[in-house]
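Aim 2 progress. For ABC transporter substrate-binding protein, the working sequence is reproduced below.
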Amino acid sequence: MLRFLKTYKMTLLFLIATTVFIVVWNANRGFNDEAMASVPRHDGLDESSILQGEDTSSLLEPSYYKYIGLHKESGASDSQGFQIVIPSLDYSGLSPEGTAEKTGLDGMAAPVVALLEEDSWADYEVSVPEDGFYQMGMSYYALPGKRSDVVRSVMIDGKYPFFQAKKLDFSRMWREAGEPWHDNQNNQYNPKREEVSGWQYRDFTDAEAKVEEPFRFYLTKGTHVVRIHTVREPAAIGELRVFSPKVIPDYDEISVMYDEKGYKKTEGHLIKVQAETSTLRSDPTLKRIEDREPDTEPFNKDAVVLNSFGGLSWREGGQWAEWEFEVPESGLYHIGARYGQWFLNGIPVQRKMTINGELPFKEMNAVSFPYKAEWQISTFSPGDDSYLFYLEKGKNIIRMEVQIGGLGEILENVTDTIQKMSLLTREVIRVTGTNPDPNADWKLDRNIPDLEPRLQNMAWSLEDGIQSLYDFGVKRGSSEVSTLYEARDVLLSMADQPSTIPARLTQFTELQSSLGLWVNGLSRHSLVLDYLIVKSPEQEWPRPAAPWYVRAGTSVGDLFRSFTKEYGGVGTVYAEDEEVLDVWIARGRDWVEIIKQMIDEDFTPETGIKVNVNVIPAQQMQLLMLANTSGMAPDVALGVEGEVPIDFAVRNALVNLNEFEDYEAVADRFRPGALIPYKYDGGDYALPENQNFYMLFYRKDIMSELGISEADIPQTWQEVMDLIPLLQQNGMDFFYPHAPNMPQLAINEFAPFLFQNGGDFYTENGARSALDSPEAMQAMRMWTGLFTNYRIAKQADFYNRFRSGEMPIGVADYSTYILLSTAAPELTGWWSMKPMPGIKQENGQINRSTGGLAQTGIIFKSSKSQEEAWEFLKWWTGADAQERFGSELEALLGVEARWNTANVEALQRLPWQQSDIEAILEQWEWFREREVVLGGYFTTRHVANMWNEIVLNGRIHREAVEAGVKEINKELRKKREEFGLDRQSGQGEEREQP
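Predicted structure tokens for this construct:
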């Protein structure tokens, strides 16, 4: 009883404290809301003089909204009544390579120009009769490539008018290749998606759909040259269209037209178009998904049924899906949908809806779907009166496309504020240095022009964004607005007390990162559809969701079934008495379902080997150890962390793969250095599935401003060290990864310096540490010297600082490549990557050795089907299977899940840009992984300790290293004694190195 009262008391105190915090926070926010009225706006502040020569580090071209705004301020307006159609072959110029003429594409008899290779282009001359805004569009035919969207850029008279013109997306068309399939548990799975070839037309629009309408281009009277430039994927051009901006009538005008034409309301019709039966879609990631709400159609309480469409995969601007349906008579109908929008808290998402290829009226350019944590019925109308749509008898097509334009200008203003904050950060660093004394009086208001007005203008920009969000339909109190409130209040505080800025630089930088993540989050508009509704006006709308008691009954039923349902198995599960290969995979269920589908469609028919697949949690390798100890190990395990195979090999638990006759041929699929961690006592105990890679990323625009040409990008660490002072003089910095909260990564951060200096982690076949060797000492000095002598940031969000220009160059891994490729459209064409810096050797070569330990496949020695397991592992790591898996994975989860396969041939087949592939393969020529030995976890731990001692505590290098080596050797000796390695034959021989 006493314990209960104590717990109750602590809980009560916690609730009181939380309530007080919320009240105070809201009170402060309210105070600042009121205080904003007294904060002046500095409309006359000429920030262009401040930004001149510096803000170009963030963007060389203006955004579309700035471009339009500047021309409108100068009196520009839409042109009237102009249209010109330029056939594909009427070009005025063509790139000397990478183009071809194609004929017979989808029945088109006339030849057309095809842009086949990256950097190929075609120029077209356009003569316009008057100054003004014009819109453009293009018909295109996507040619076989790497399954990605076709991406083009457009230049006017040799220049990009705004940065969004550097990335125009032209989607391919996809459909389901057959019906969904079922496993023997009656669970439903998505069919494969296949591409549909054909001509399409698309206006030049924002690739992220942050602009509601097609782009307007300002052209002066006369002749201009429009260049269509290839960024990615081959495609043919049918024709280029240039025309005066379209004027779309609103619903009131359309209603008058209905009356004039005598259109009548239909009666007695209610049609449901199941969303999961979408006939065409822009992206193979758009697929059927499961929903367990009882009213979702169809519903199966006992098995998985894919009864809805979209969700997290249907969120990127420009993604679309189409549905075909038939109506029994011509006339006026209501159109709506049963949908779920529980993704953006309090913020509505939008879709553009066309019928038979046309916007029915202006309001359908941005149909709003408000937030609610349950299913809803949308009538596609803002009020109680539903819009009427005229449909002809027979087949009709509805297309819905992700539209973010309603939030576009808000997101643009916040992004602009981030850029201004980034510039101010660099200006402060120029005055205070990268490690300022927080107690010094730096007199920033004297040394930085218009400091207080600029901070106040930034605060007003965020305040305007907050109010615009409320006007857009965001509910007050939404957590999505809190980031803007926090940033606004910090800016006001800094404007009020400029002397506190040096001590708050870290907070200021983190705030920029938070705002960047906020913009990215609000740029993704997910939506789930159950079905579309086409009905006569007198028909009632279906109910949005089942009553609570029905939902409660379903939940209770699911709970009871969870005690008997097998969650580990995926797909068809064969009986235990059959000869079956048992494969465990430590990856997400979506990933494993793709592998199982590939097995059932490819591997089993080819080999006759049946396979059961089970999912185990990723990074839970202890489950494999427990299974092996208990005699329940699988035949094959995939997704095994790279350091794990040796732990099993030393226990004689794995099959030595080099005992198979064709092992050497299989090993040739990978870089030799990738196999080092899996060697033990003359054996090879794993095959790599994927691998990470580190590259040098740099901003081409900023490097050019600093006078550094493409040829002068650092190739060696000495050149990096020569560059760092120049960067810091300009308020910028170089990035080298360090994760203080993840010490297990420190060994990977140190390894490049060690290998490039000719050192190694161990000697005597893994019996002793080699970190006290002269080479290792030099490597430690170089690594830690970046942080001590050159004072680069010890921790930073490189992605956001790279976007802002604070860190225009640095070493980063595969995940950064994906982020920059998918979430930084404004940098398209202005960043690149090269192999990471190295150390020049006596023969003139630059040693760029580095690793990228990732995941592996292993065969357990307890398997009674070792030959079959080897056949499976050979199939899985082969180029064909790796290519298909990478393509299917990207189709399912998007570019963010691009598969970084370890198979060199498969890597070249996947949809990477050719220039990126070439850079990666050049780095892979120096791919070298570290050895994994018993007790090696002490090396991982003490390498991190050495960095901390040297960089944070100022300890002498040799003292820190020797102290760590002493502890490492002690643990290595202990583990070798534990397993009796020193008593086994052959242990004194050096391990074979590839």
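Residues 257-403+525-543 form a domain with the Jelly Rolls fold (CATH 2.60.120.260). This observation will guide construct design in the next reporting period.
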